[in-house]
Amino acid sequence: MTEDEKKIAAAFRKCADVRLPDDFADRLVCRIREKKDEKNESKSIKTVFTRIALIAASLTLLLGFVPNVLELRTDKDAALVAHYDEIRPVNHTLPQDSQLNALAFLGFFREVIRRRVKPLVERFRKREDESINSD
Amino acid sequence: MQEVWEEIGSDRERGARRLVAEYGNRLFAAALLLCRNETDAEDLVFRTFERAVERIGQYKPTGEFYGWLYVIMLNFWRMDVRRMQPDVVCAGSTVDLPEVPDPSLSDSLAGVDAEAIRAAVRRLSPMLAEVVVLRFFEGRSMEEMAEMLDVPEGTVKSRLYNAKAALGKLLKEMGL
């Protein structure tokens, strides 16, 4: 700082003689507390919503996808699925993209369930046929 | 004894009280030079402390703590100015600058009271007001100012030159 600037700075020091209101710290602490409560509240809302979403997703899987898969027990559906698998190979790996959307995710589960359940269904049908033949 | 930022990290409320006790008045004085009135200045300091407590994890202990607080305040103030006077922020000055700064600025300022100095600084453009406060009230070096304002040192020097010129002219206009 030059001498002139030092003089200017000395004049500006006159502006330093101020005080915040006495209740300033109390108000700040109150606000911090309020914010903490708001955060906790939104967290609990988020938890509730997450649970609802999880239950809804589970119900969708159970009531929607699983019965669809089990219907493959008929010859017609099994043939359709076989055809479908032939023309469009199923990719069982989850997409790496972080912007994975919910539909893709559900679609993935649908394929997994079908793949897993399909052999079971076929085995079950085979056993059923065998028991009919032996009768 | 714990540093203020450490205390905020371990106990927010106690840390906030210490923050006000240690830096409140100093920051309030700077805010009063920048803001239009006491209410705005108090609100600015309040938001600054609130944000500082909230984002204490972002503070790097290698830097100066008051400088960190000051930059938070400056950012809030700039946002306020932008909201209130969108055209003024980028302008160099709200007054026509004389070609050469008044050499008697320091003498003129010596004879005026704090309220008159604040009134003159508030009439400067935001860009010039922030360098004036940093240089003459906070006593910052050119290097520190450049870092805090995130502009090259040359820009700070040129703004400061203009600010001094504008301040001298304003004081004359105010009859001081």
Protein model, in words:
The complex is a heterodimer of chains A (135) and B (176). Helix content of chain A is 76%, strand content 0%. Chain A is mainly α and 135 residues long. Chain A has one domain (3-134). Chain A is rod-shaped, with a radius of gyration of 34 Å. Residues 92-99 of chain A have low confidence and may be disordered. With 176 residues, chain B is mostly helical. Chain B is built from nine helices and no strands. In chain B, helix 1 crosses helix 2 (12-34), helix 2 (12-34) packs antiparallel against helix 3 (38-54) and helix 3 packs across helix 4 (65-84). The radius of gyration of chain B is 17 Å and the shape is globular. Chains A and B meet through helix 1 and helix 2 of A and helix 2, helix 3, helix 5, helix 6 and helix 7 of B.
What's the CATH architecture of the largest domain in chain B? Orthogonal Bundle
As for the number of domains of chain A, it is 1
How many β-strand runs of chain A?
0
Mean pLDDT value of chain B: 86
Main structural class of chain A: mainly alpha
Strand content of chain A: under 5%
Give the helix proportion of chain A (percent range): over 70%
Low-confidence stretches of chain A: 92-99
Total domain count of chain B: 2
Give the CA-CA distance, first to last residue of chain B.
47 Å
Q: What is the percentage of strand-forming residues of chain B?
A: under 5%
Topology:
The complex is a heterodimer of chains A (135) and B (176).
Chain A: H1 3-12, H2 24-70, H3 75-87, H4 102-134
Helix pairs in contact in A: 2-4
Chain B: H1 4-10, H2 12-34, H3 38-54, H4 65-84, H5 105-110, H6 114-122, H7 126-137, H8 142-149, H9 153-173
Short account of what is shown:
Chain A is mainly alpha-helical. Chain A has helices spanning 3-12, 24-70, 75-87, 102-134. Chain A has one domain.
Q: Which terms summarize this structure?
A:
heterodimer; A: 135 residues; mainly alpha; 4 helices; 76% helix; B: 176 residues; Rna Polymerase Sigma Factor, Chain: A; Arc Repressor Mutant, subunit A; 2 domains
